[in-house]
Structure formats: C-alpha cells, structure tokens
Amino acid sequence: MADTLDRRAPVTRPISPHLQIYRLPLTLVMSGLHRITGFVLYFGMLLVCWWFLAAAQGPNAYAKFQWFAGSIIGQIVILGYTWSLIHHTLGGIRHLIWDTGRGFGPQEREWLAAATIIGSLALTFVVALIGYLAMGGSR
Amino acid sequence: MSGITPDSAPKHFRTALAKVRGRGAAKSGTGDFWMQRMTSVAGVPLTIMAIVIGIFLLGRNQAAAAQILGSPLVGIIMLLFVICTVVHMKIGMQEIVVDYVPDESTKLTLLLANTFFCWSVGVISVYALLKLSFGL
Ligand code: HEM
Fold first, then answer.
1. Lowest mean pLDDT: which of A50-59, A69-78, B2-11, B63-72?
2. Which of B68, B92, B112, B115 lies at a C-alpha separation of 20 to 30 Å from A107?
3. Global pTM?
4. What is the set of domains in chain B, with CATH numbers?
C-alpha cells in the first residue's frame, strides 16, 4: 500500500474541492436558508402571539408592545421576521413546484434559487418602505 | 444468503401497510408529510393576507388595532393564519429535531417541548383573537 503511494508522481492539480476554489452552490444556500428561516419563524410566532394578546388586553399592554416594536432592537427583529416570512414563503412555493415533479432541471434549479433570494429581498424592501411611510416617514 | 430464484422472487415490491404504519423517525407515518403540504398551500394566501393586515395596523393605537383585528373578515383570516401556521411549524420543527438529534431520550424530550410550545402559542393566539372578536 505505502509502496504504491511512494512511487506515484506528485500530484499538482487540486485533488478535491478545496475551500479556496469551492463555489458554494446557490441551491445549497437556499436549501439551508429555508430551514433557518423556518426555525426563525417558529420563534417569531411568539411576537405575533404577543401582538394579538396585547391588542386584546388593552391600551397599557399595547403600549408596551408598541414601545418594543418601535425600539431599535424591535425594528431589527421585525425586519428580520418580515424577510424570513417572505423568503420562507417563496422558498415554500419552490418546494410546492417541486412537489408537482417540475423545476428539477439544471437551469430551472438555478433560476428558482435566484428568484427566491432576489424576490425575497425585493419584496422585503417594498414592505419595509410601505411600513416606513405608513409610520409617517422620518419623524 | 442469495436464495432468490425465479420461484421465490417477490411478486410485488410494495411493503405491507401494516408494516409501515406509524414508521419514520417521529413514528407518525406519512400523515405529517401530507399535512405539511396542505398547510404550505393554504399558507401562501394566508401569509400574504396576514402581511397586508400587519402593514395596515402599523402605527395605530390599541383601540383602532383591536377594532380591526376584531372585525369578522380580519379576525377569521388571522385565526386561519394562526391555526394553519402552528400545525405547519410543529411538523417542521419535528422534522428538524429528528434530523439532528440521534439520541432517543433527548429526541423525545424535544418533541414533547415542541408539541407544548406549538399548542401554547396556538391557544393563546386563538384566545386573544376570539376575545377581540367577541369581547369575552
Ligand atoms: C410563520 C409561518 C411559518 C412558520 C413558523 C414555518 C415554519 C417551518 C419550519 C420550522 C419548517 C421546517 C424546516 C425544514 O424542515 O427545513 C418549515 C418547512 C416548510 N415550510 Fe414553513 N413555515 C411558515 C410558513 C410557510 C409558508 C407560508 C409556506 C408556503 C409555501 C411554507 C412552506 C414550507 C414547506 C414546503 C416546508 C417543507 C420543506 C421541506 O420539505 O424541506 N411555510 N416551515
């Protein structure tokens, strides 16, 4: 065994996908993001639950929720939740297309993956902009 | 070892139903798979509507928010959104747990916690929405 290895000419080409030359496939990243956003949304339901409960409880409880929603951390959390929800929904539609047996071709795969991330970022921007304007713009 | 001759070859390749019932890492069979698809399909319009309603409520005070969330159409849409989502996210988290947790007792503990969490979030949200609609 060692004998054979010793006699082999030194290999100069990269012999396996190496960290420096490996391009992370977009489809792989989108697969991971679907799971991560699903995980985030799971705990995000606590926020939705708090929102409904605060509205049902009365002005004081709602003021507390609005104080959080208006804080820097609250704004970041809500923006992250919004993007997660939109991204996961688009990713979910992609899964549903796959469930019909379509969308597995080499180009379709890439196209769907790109549409998911570009679509989610664009839609989140639109929703955030509408939200910003609805809150009265910069005050 | 290789006793397969044309005589003893299986006549069909389907596993008997009795043998697969309740199988899978979470012991729930294919019911969850189907439920996950149904809640995904229903989730698309419900999520879009929930986002629109959410935008609509931005910056309003409690009285206005309570009135809108308590109106029949909005209330029903939000109830459907919550119920659909908690069913969906329970199965989704269960899938994540069984993928990453090989240890049987840790797995069962997490599956139990998942069930409690989803039921709690679901019931509290439904309670709040019904209170907004009927002022119980
Ligand atoms: C707030 C709402 C939502 C929550 C909390 C949520 C949560 C989750 C979780 C935790 C998973 C498991 C992730 C995984 O196994 O990789 C999942 C999977 C999934 N979600 Fe959602 N989700 C939500 C909304 C939606 C919507 C609106 C759709 C619409 C298409 C959707 C479609 C899917 C699909 C198809 C899967 C299965 C993916 C697979 O088979 O690997 N989800 N979701």
1. B2-11
2. B92
3. 0.85
4. 27-134 (1.20.1300.10)
